[in-house]
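Lecture notes, unit on protein representations.

Consider one protein chain, 272 amino acids long.
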Amino acid sequence: MIKKNSKKNAMQNLGILYFSSTGNSLYISKKIKEKLGGEIKYIPNYKEDGSIFENIIIVAPIYSFGLPIPTFNLLKQLNKKSKIYVIQNYGGMVLNANALFYKYAKENNLNIKSIYTLKMPENYTLVMSPPKFFQKSILNSADQRIDKILKNIENYKFKIPKDKSKYENIYLKNKSNWHLISSYFSVTDKCTKCQHCINICPTDNITLQNGKIVFKDQCIACLSCFHRCPNKAIIYKNKDNKKRYINPYIDEKTIGKDFQEKGILPSIMHIF
């Protein structure tokens, strides 16, 4: 359902809160900053309530038809006054992800205005890996689709999801089992103990013990370690047959960083 308002939205005092493991959400966040300004904050490191921002845009992926744990937890800490807009990106299916986000936001009494979805390349490659030509096609049209969403926000064309709570149990069941995923990870002799996986894990789930990389039981299924290991040394179920993905227009080292200064990304139209 689209709600229209005749007023023009200036998007003043904007905070862009993002969660990203492979760069898709960060790419979207930087495009928002390019168009509307604002500050970009990484959700796992963000400990404030967002009250310094009049407007907040949350950019996050969809996990198992719902919210990643850092995004889920963020809704509990945000203030009740800031206007909140949401852009969820996905590689597979949306199902009721928008309805769940809206429901949880309302349960926390948040001032949520609109929720949008945006197709981006799939990064949950433990199950399937879309062909590269499909990824290229999605990326080549990303800027245009981001611009359309931002124009809707600027012109108060709000999108309120319909209730489809019948899928909520699927999401909650999957969410309760995410911590088990890292038990299937191991490292090969390609590992140089650089500790990059330790440094980028949003839940401190990876440690170095007695010279060995150890995965604990606090995994949230973001797959940052798997995709971003510089030597591709992390494997799943003792097999090195899964593809890895990092958004090609994002410097991998900047994922998980905050951005306050002005930064503009090049358009990705027809770059392949």
